[in-house]
Amino acid sequence: MVRRTTLIFFLLLLLDLAAFWLALSHGAVTIDPLAGWTGHLPDWQLTILEQLRLPRAVAGMTVGAMLGMAGVLMQVLLRNPLAEPYVLGISGGAAVAALGALLLGLSSFWVSGSAFIGSLISMFMVFLLGGRQGETHSERLLLTGVVVAAGWGSMISFMLAVGPDQSLRGMLFWLMGDLSRTSAPWWSIGVVFLALAAGWVMAPALDLLARGDQQAAALGVEIHRLRASCYVTASLLTASAVTLAGPIGFVGLVVPHLIRLVSGARHRVLLPASMLAGGALLTLADTLARTIIAPQQLPVGVLTAMIGVPLFLYLLRHQGVRG
Amino acid sequence: MTMLQLDSLVCGRGASRLGAPLSLQAQGGEFWMILGENGVGKSTLLLTLAGLLPPLSGRVFLDGIDVARFPRKLLAQRLGMLLQQSDMTFPFTVREAVSAGRYAHRKPWHPSAPEDGAAVDHALRACALTELAGQSVQRLSGGEQRRVAIATLLAQEAGALLLDEPVNPLDLRHQSDLMAHFRHLVCSERRLVMMSVHDLNLAARFADRVILMFPDGSVEAGAASELLTRSRLEALYRHPLHEIRDQDTRFWVAGERDLAD
């Protein structure tokens, strides 16, 4: 069992390195990143590498990692393998706030700030409306999330309908999750490691929480404290991911599910493995999105949905995701 | 030795309160069974005793300390509870699921100690799950999942075990083996076992003491030999019963009720 886990982590790390390498080397022009390290690159290639590809590869890695971990945490909070930031309307809340800021003509800093606050508000709303007096019913929460997501969807349509033509392009662009909007995603590395550390500490108790609040309490878990820390961590991850890249669906859904199939449900394995796999998946998807019809670039959110939807439907049919 | 003390306890959920205040003392080395019809509050009583529901009034003491004041982890080292239903949403293996019972004994930075493995092995063996240890809990039958939940409780090695209808879904052999195991825990290890059951014959065979929860809200607690009488049990279930004696053993069989009433 330990061997198998070691092997899984080894393979995932290799996958991450490969994805990072591909993200740096591939694009409209092919560049050898090692040559950049040793100083054998022409200046314009070095500029592309340092200013464009490196921040983008880091954003891909960290946003994917955040979405993977956020998916795991929300699934155990709601005790439902279908929970995910996108499905629960967290991304929708962020989008409404960001579009509002765009409509007001605010700077990109405020657009990102609004997205961050919007996702926190949305998450708070789902848990406030879905829970009742300390009791939480996972199905109620999921349904609340789905309904809230639909509500945000209609508000987005409304804003697009009344928005002036000159903001429309920016708004549509925001709605398609994309990794190119930030040139300095370095803080996200800190968020990922912070969340990983918190997840590592919570993991044994999360294994128990996965079997129900009462069951976890009977086995010795202070569930209110645990749920609160899990909620805060998941919110921070989701808000950071949405702020960096906009709404990107299905990574948080598909990654934990795939990892559970190969490594089981223990959170000490599931959380770090989902982090690594999410990073690799999103970085690879983004590299594909940049090169598939180069020099034109696709937003990565389009691609993850295109891969994620059929994959998820397949899993639902053949593996029996239990709700 | 484990001592569970109920001090004019009234339990219930929300606005619905159950019965008259109940005071009693249960200790290690006693096998208690709770009997009563559906919805009379057996589960509510057990959950309250385990500190999972707050009492409406009165208090519950475990070893002289109010259950409500226990940190959950310390409480779980002394008292375990088998819930009526268990959630198998995520694909843990049987061994992983049963290991969860050791949580209360683990220090935060030392995930597992050698005695954890021994306790889990022991619990798996007692529930006849050793062969299934590597299987995913989701692939098990209902009865097997029930045994996983019971094994989790056994791995917890608490002095007091509360069980909500533990053996209903089990086949005859596993039911009989597990009941014998519980009796062994009571008699040889001086633990306290308290369970709700619907099978009167199990109660007659195993219980030292019983709590009868009547439909009118009154509760009687005491020695099984005194309380398990035909007239009481007929009132308990509002149903006629036949009593059959085979030497020293009594059996009860449900009679037929005139449905025209």
Structure description:
The complex is a heterodimer of chains A (323) and B (261). Chain A starts with a helix and ends in a 5-residue tail after the last helix. Chain A has helices at 2-25, 33-38, 43-78, 90-103, 108-130, 138-162, 165-175, 187-209, 213-218, 223-245, 251-263, 267-291, 300-318, and strands spanning 131-132, 135-136. In chain A, strand 1 and strand 2 (135-136) form a beta hairpin. Chain A is globular and about 65 Å long. Chain A is mainly alpha-helical and 323 residues long. The mean pLDDT of chain A is 86. Chain B has helices spanning 42-49, 72-78, 94-99, 114-126, 142-156, 172-187, 200-206, 224-227, 230-237; strands at residues 3-13, 16-27, 31-36, 57-62, 65-66, 79-82, 160-164, 192-196, 209-213, 219-223, 241-246, 249-254. The model of chain B has no long low-confidence stretch (mean pLDDT 91). Chain B has a six-stranded mixed beta sheet, sandwiched between helices. Chain B has a four-stranded antiparallel beta sheet with strand order 2-1-4-5, with helices on one face. In chain B, helix 4 (114-126) packs antiparallel against helix 5 (142-156). Chain A binds chain B through residues 76, 79-81, 201, 204-205, 207-208, 210-212, 214-215, 217-223, 260, 264-266, 268, 322-323, and chain B through 47, 50, 52, 71-73, 75-77, 80-81, 83, 86-93, 96-97, 100-101, 103-104, 106, 108, 111, 136, 138, 152, 156.
What's the layout of helices and strands?
The complex is a heterodimer of chains A (323) and B (261).
Chain A (H helix, E strand, L loop, with lengths): L1 H24 L7 H6 L4 H36 L11 H14 L4 H23 E2 L2 E2 L1 H25 L2 H11 L11 H23 L3 H6 L4 H23 L5 H13 L3 H25 L8 H19 L5
Antiparallel strand pairs in A: 1-2
Helix pairs in contact in A: 1-3, 1-12, 3-8, 3-10, 3-11, 3-12, 4-5, 4-6, 4-7, 4-10, 5-6, 5-10, 8-10, 8-12, 11-12
Chain B lengths: L2 E11 L2 E12 L3 E6 L5 H8 L7 E6 L2 E2 L5 H7 E4 L11 H6 L14 H13 L15 H15 L3 E5 L7 H16 L4 E5 L3 H7 L2 E5 L5 E5 H4 L2 H8 L3 E6 L2 E6 L7
Parallel strand pairs in B: 3-8, 3-9, 6-7, 7-8
Antiparallel strand pairs in B: 1-2, 1-4, 4-5, 9-10, 11-12
Helix pairs in contact in B: 4-5
